[in-house]
Amino acid sequence: MGAHSIARIATIVVSVVVYIAGITLNILSARGTGPFLMTTGNISDTYNTQITPSGWTFSIWGVIYFWLTAMLIYIVSTIFRRNAFGPMYCSHSVLPYGFFISWILNILFNISWLLLWDREVMIAALIMLALVAFTNYTMIFFSCRGLKEYGAWLNKYHNKDLWCIRILVQNGLAVYTTWTSIATLINLTIVVSYDAGMSKSGAATLSLSLLLVEVIVWFVLENSFLDKHVRYILTVYPVIIVALSGNMTKNFDASAPGTNGVFTALLLALACVLFVIKVCLVIWRHIKHPIYSDTHTQEVTAQIENASKQ
Length: 310
What we know:
mainly alpha, two-stranded antiparallel ribbon, 12 helices, transmembrane, transmembrane helix
C-alpha cells in the first residue's frame, strides 16, 4: 500500500509518447510533408461525397486534440498526487490497463489511417478508421467501469477528481469518438461509391441512415440502461450538430433541396432537439436523482477497503 507502480508509470509514459508521435504525424499530414504525399484535405476533395462537410468543420480536430491533451495532463498529474492510500494513479486504478492499451492502439490506428488515406487505399483506411472509433468506445467503457467501482469513493473523498474524469476523460473522449464515428461513415460513403460502384446519392443516404440509427440508439441507451454510467457525457450531440451544419453549408441547396439535403436538415433538427432534452434530463436527474447519495455509505466503505488492498 502506498508504493509506486513502475508498470503503470511506464504505461502512462508510453501513452504520452505515442500521443506526441500521433500529433506530430497529424500536423505533417495536414501540410502534406514528411511521409505524406498530399494533404488530408486534398485527398478529401478528390473523393468528395454528398455528406462531406465544409472545410471549417475539420477545425474540430483542434478542439479534439486540445481536450485530449488536457486529459493526458490530468492523468500524468495523478502520478505526483497522493490520497490516503498512496499515489492516485494506482491507489484506486479508476483507469485500468485496458484503458491505456486501448489508447495506444487508438493512436497507432490513427497513424495507420493517415498513411493509408494519403496513399488512397480507401478500403484499408476505412477499416483503420473504424478501429479508431472502436477503441474510443472501449476507452469510454473502461472509464465508466472504473467509476462504477470507485465513483462513490471519489464523490465522497475526491470530488474534484470525479469531475475531472467526467469532463476531461469521458467528455473529451466522447468528442473524439463521435467525430471519428462520423468520419467512418464518410469513409464508408467513399468506399461504397468509388470502390463498390454505388451512386453517390445512394451512398450518402446509406451513411445518413446509419447515423440516424446510431443517434436514436444512443439517445435511448444513455437515458435508460446506461444513465448511471454516462449521464454526464454531453458532448456527443454538439459534435453531431457541428458535422451536420458543415454538411448543410456545403451541400444543401435551399432552392432545390435533394433527398439527402432534406435528410441532413431533419437529422440536424433532431440532434438539436435531443441535445436540449439531454441537458434538461441531466439537470433534473442531478437534482432529483443523484447517482451517489447517503444510501451509498456501505458502497463507499467497500470501495475504500478495495483501494487499501491494492
